[in-house]
UniProtKB/TrEMBL annotation:
PANTHER family given in the database record: GLUCOSE-6-PHOSPHATE 1-DEHYDROGENASE, GLUCOSE-6-PHOSPHATE 1-DEHYDROGENASE G6PD
GO CC terms, sorted: cytosol
Record flagged with keyword NADP: yes
Enzyme nomenclature, EC number: 1.1.1.49
Recorded metabolic or biological pathway in which this protein acts: Carbohydrate degradation; pentose phosphate pathway; D-ribulose 5-phosphate from D-glucose 6-phosphate (oxidative stage): step 1/3
Keyword entries, A-Z: Carbohydrate metabolism, Glucose metabolism, NADP, Oxidoreductase
Protein name: Glucose-6-phosphate 1-dehydrogenase
Chain's role: Catalyzes the oxidation of glucose 6-phosphate to 6-phosphogluconolactone.
Provenance organism: Maritimibacter alkaliphilus HTCC2654
Protein family per UniProt: Belongs to the glucose-6-phosphate dehydrogenase family.
Enzyme class: oxidoreductase
């Protein structure tokens, strides 16, 4: 099965921060893959814009190397050369005057204009202002802003206000690359495109839901940034919150940007404040390695792990908790949502038949896909013994290799920007609401000077996180890569 590739309209895409790490690893190789697959029209152009003085040839060499390293099996020299023809480079100073007139001259009139702010958030305001001042962006232009979108509600609100001075909300694309993942969109397809799940998708039939984003890496070279942020700000406020919203939201009336985002916002607003006793924070620590060493801050109280129990105060979810956990240096790299259904109200079989509850797992990584455990009879003449077996829906197997080679989240989202589709981007009020829920939790930790619990690198997190579940007679799904 081959997926259909529909070319987008001609565009000029400017990447501010076009020489940075994100541009090199994700944005530029992603754009190349869209070109390779035929989604980019002949008239498309990509303009790198950054502080470094560099000529066009130098930038093309930089991009060629990035493609070689990060574009996977599509690295074909002829295709790469053809793609590089689309590239140019302008040196700009985001906070000064250099380069802006050159950039203005580079832009064409009758094409979609998009500006990717792949720079630190402190530059968002300066760039927005200059795009306006130098008349580089028109009323139909789009800007793409990276995370982190603020540090708390106040700063997110200030950032929204700054961007709003120069751009309408319909022009602002706040990226959360989790929303660009194939499985995340499939979550909506499964929920709202089938009759099978939605009637059961509520507190009457669902015992609880687990959302896990576990990484095996530590803080890497981002120690200083991470230590100011921590797992709550870096992962929960954005990625896990988005997964929670898509899992918990009511069916939107249509698949339309505001209809979907209105429903997500309602979920965030219905979140109950989390009890102090229902959150566990951790820091990885062993004899040979530790979070404190990695961030070079022996006094740090920042968490590299957090687990919590969340309640949503609405009709659908009253009584069904959501358990969230995310951490670094964990046993396996896994992102998944597990919907654990209730056990049948009465068993007609003998007590020790082995029957248990159904579980639907939506895997974002590794092996994007879903599986559903169902209870069947164990084959053979051993009597009525029951076993749980998975109905596996790994996309690679179900759809064939070609369809499993789906676009990376970034490339899909950039094409959505060009198409002018905001469905998979966060709206300003959504981001502020998510911070409004996170802020009191973080403030509580700061006031109490809470020290995170240590956990062994390569483990499943602190003991206390297991207890959080055990207290409710539940347990985390095993972390399996
Ligand atoms: P980086 O430090 O590698 O690159 C920064 C880029 O900004 C460079 O191209 C630099 O030339 C440019 N720049 C800096 N100051 C400038 C100025 N005054 N004028 C013009 N250009 C200037 O950063 P990065 O890792 O690519 O991250 C970019 C943004 O994306 C950040 O907001 C980051 O939080 C976010 N982000 C990055 C990643 C990642 O994997 N790298 C992931 C998620 C979000």
């Amino acid at each position: 099965m081959v997926s259909r590739v529909i070319p987008v309209d001609p565009f000029d895409l400017v990447i501010f921060g076009g020489t940075g790490d994100l541009a090199r690893r994700k944005i530029l190789p992603g754009l190349y893959r869209r070109f390779f697959d035929g989604q980019m029209p002949d008239e498309a152009r990509i303009i790198g814009a950054a502080r470094s003085e560099m000529d066009e040839a130098g930038y093309r060499d930089f991009v060629r190397d990035a493609i070689k390293e990060f574009s996977g099996k599509r690295n074909d020299p002829n295709m790469v050369s053809a793609f590089l023809e689309k590239l140019s480079y302008v040196a700009v100073d985001a906070t000064g005057t250099d380069g802006w007139k050159d950039l203005a001259k580079t832009m064409r009139a009758d094409v979609v204009k998009a500006y990717y702010f792949s720079v630190g958030p402190s530059l968002f305001g300066a760039i927005a202002e200059r795009l306006h001042k130098y008349k580089i962006a028109d009323d139909a232009a789009r800007i793409v802003v990276e995370k982190p979108f603020g540090h708390d509600r106040e700063s997110a609100r200030a950032l929204n206000a700054t961007l709003a001075e120069h751009f309408d909300e319909t022009q602002i694309y706040r990226i959360d690359h989790y929303l660009g993942k194939e499985t995340v969109q499939n979550l909506m397809a499964v929920r709202f495109g089938n009759m099978l799940f939605e009637p059961l998708w509520n507190a009457q039939y669902v015992d609880h839901i687990q959302i896990t984003v576990a990484e095996t890496v530590g803080v890497g070279g981002r120690g200083e940034y991470y230590d100011r942020s921590g797992a709550m700000r870096d992962m929960v406020q954005n990625h896990l919150m988005q997964l929670l919203c898509l899992t918990a939201m009511e069916p939107p009336s249509k698949y339309d940007p505001d209809a979907v985002r209105d429903e997500k916002l309602k979920v965030i607003r219905a979140l109950e404040p989390v009890e102090h006793s229902e959150i566990v924070r951790g820091q990885y620590k062993s004899k040979s390695e530790s979070y404190l060493k990695d961030v070079e801050n022996p006094e740090s109280l920042t968490e590299s792990y957090v687990a919590m129990k969340i309640r949503i105060a609405n009709w659908r979810w009253n009584g069904t908790p959501f358990y969230l956990r995310t951490g670094k240096k964990m046993k396996a790299r896994v992102s998944e949502i597990v919907v654990r259904f209730k056990e049948p109200p009465h068993s007609i079989f003998e007590e020790d038949t082995g029957q248990s509850a159904n579980e639907l797992t939506i895997r974002l990584q590794p092996n994007e896909g879903m599986d559903l455990t169902v209870t069947i009879k164990e084959p053979g003449p051993g009597g009525m013994r029951l076993i749980d077996v998975p109905l596996d829906m790994t996309f690679a197997e179900a759809l064939g290799e070609e369809a499993a080679d789906v676009p990376d989240a970034y490339e899909r989202l950039i094409m959505d920007v060009i198409r002018g589709n905001q469905t998979l981007f966060m709206r300003g009020d959504e981001v502020e609401a998510a911070w409004a829920w996170t802020d009191p939790i973080i403030d509580g930790w700061t006031e109490r000077e809470d020290r995170p619990f240590p956990y062994e690198p390569g483990s499943t997190g602190p003991e206390e996180a297991l207890i959080l579940m055990h207290r409710d007679g539940r347990r985390w799904r095993e972390l399996r890569a």
